[in-house]
Amino acid sequence: MSQSSIIDIHNLTKYYGKRLIVQDVSLSVPRGCIYGFLGRNGMGKTTTIRIFLGMEDATRGGATVFGEDSAALRPETRARIGYLPEGHHVYGWMTVKECGQFQAAYYPKWNQDIFEAVLTHFRLTSSMKAGGLSRGQRAGLCLAMTLAPEPELLVLDDPALGLDPVARRSLLQSMLYVTRQADRTIFFSSHLLSDVERVADRIAVLDGCVLRADCTVDTFRQSLKHFVLKFRETPPSMPEIPGLLQSFRTDRELAVTVANPAADLESRLAELRPESMEPVEMTLEDAFINYVGERGEKTFFMNGKEAK
Amino acid sequence: MSLIFSVSPASDIPIYRQITQRVRRALVLGHLKVGEQLPAVRTLAEELVVNPNTVARAYQELIRDGLAESRSGIGVFISERRQVFSKEERIRRLDQSVEQLAHEAILLDFPLSEVQVALEQQWKESHRKTTETGNPDGRKK
Fold first, then answer.
1. What are the strands, taking DSSP E only, across A134-283?
2. Is the whole-model pTM more than 0.95?
C-alpha cells in the first residue's frame, strides 16, 4: 500500500450465497489518476465499486479509501467522494433546480457555479422536470449533482451507458475538466473502449471474477502482439507458445495473438518457416476482445512488467 | 497556430502517435514554423478530448526527435532542425515510406515512370513550402 494511492483494494473476495462474484482482487488507484475499469457485464465491476465505497461488505479481504477502511468510512471522508451510480436515477417529480437543492443539503460543500456549468454543458435549464429528461440529459443532471460538491475522488459506474455520442463527449469533457485541478482522482467503469482510450491513464480488467490486467493503456496494447504468417503451402500446426491467446488458420495463413510475448517469440514463429511474417497493430478494442473473449486462455495477468 | 485536427481512438495507431503525425504533417505543409509555440498540453488535451498525459507524451517524442524544444516555464516550441537520427535510422525510415509508396503504386497499376513524375512534383511542392516558411524540415542543400 503506497501513501499516494487513493483507493486500495486488497485480496477482495465476494460471494453472494454460493455464487462467487469477485475473487482475490488487489488494485490500487494512485492520486491524480484517471482509471478505467473494464470487464464484460456481470464480471463484478459494480460489486467491487460498492464494496470499496462501503455500501456492501466483502466476504474476505477489503479496501481502503483515503487510507480509511471502506467498511467504516466516516461521513467527512464520504463527503470527499462523488459517486455516480449506474442508471442515473432521479426523483421524476422534482425540477432540475430542486434536484440540486436536495443534493446540496447532504454535502458540506456545494459549488453552485459548477452545478450550473454542467447543466449548461448538457443544455439543461433549472425549471425542467427531472422525469421528462432524456437519458443524456438525466446523465448530465446526475453528473452536475455529483460534481458540485467538488469531490476529490470521483467514482462513475458505467456513466456512458445509453448515452448518445454528443452526451458521451460532454461527459468526457466534464471528466477532463475535473482533473484540471491537480490531485483529483477519477475511477470509472465503461464498455466504450474508445472513450477509455481517450481519457484513461490506466486500466484494470476484471474477467471471470479475477483481475487480469492493471496497467497503462499503452502497456495493455503493447503486451498483446498479433502476427500474420503467410505460407506457400498449408500452414504447419501451431507449436506450443507461452501466452498464446488465439490462433487462426486459413489456406495459406496463420494468424496468432499472444499476450506478454516472450523475447524469443519472433524467432519461434520464424522456425515455422513462413514466407512472410508481419506484426499487425491492434486497436484497444481488438486487444480487449482478444484478451477476454471466449476462446482466450485465462491464465495471464498484465501489470506492465511481467506475467504472473 | 493552426493545429486543427481530431484524433480517432478506434484506430490501430495510438493517440499520442496520431498527434505527432499531425504535427509532422503541419511542419511539412508549412502550417507550423520554427519558433512557433505549440498549444499548452492542457489546452490541446481539452480541445481533442484526450488525457493530458497523452499530449505530454506526444510532445516528449517530438522533442526527442529533434522537432521541438521545451523552454522551461514557457512551453514547447518548434525548434531549428537538429538531426537526431543516425544515418542508419534515417535510411530505415526512408525505406519504410518508400516501401509503402511502392506497394500503393503497384496496387493502383501505375508504371514507375509516372510514380517518379508524381514524386518529383510532390518533392518540389513540399520543398518550396518548407523552405519558404523557414521550416525545420526544409533543409537547404
1. 153-156, 185-189, 202-207, 210-216, 224-230, 244-249, 253-259, 276-280
2. no
A35-A52-A304-A228 Cα dihedral, nearest 10 degrees: -70
A25 and A168 assigned to the same domain: yes
Write the residue in A176, A197, A221 that is nearest to B45 by C-beta: A176
Give yes or no for B103 touching A (CB within 8 A): no
pLDDT digits (tens, 9 = 90+) for A151-179: 999 999 999 887 888 888 889 998 998 88
- The CATH topology of domain B1-141 is Arc Repressor Mutant, subunit A (1.10.10)
Residue contact B49–A179, C-beta within 8 A: no
Contacts of B10 in chain A (CB under 8 A): 193-194, 283, 285
Contact B15, B32 (CB under 8 A): no
Are the beta carbons of A199 and B42 separated by less than 8 Å?
Answer: no
Distance CA B40, CA B56 (A): 9
ipTM: 0.76
Q: Which of residues 6-45 of B touch A (CB under 8 A)?
A: 7, 9-16, 42, 45
User: Which pLDDT tens digit goes with each residue over A210-243?
Assistant: 888 888 888 888 888 888 888 888 888 877 777 7
Q: Check if B52 contacts A (Cβ < 8 Å).
A: yes
Number of domains present in the structure of chain A: 2
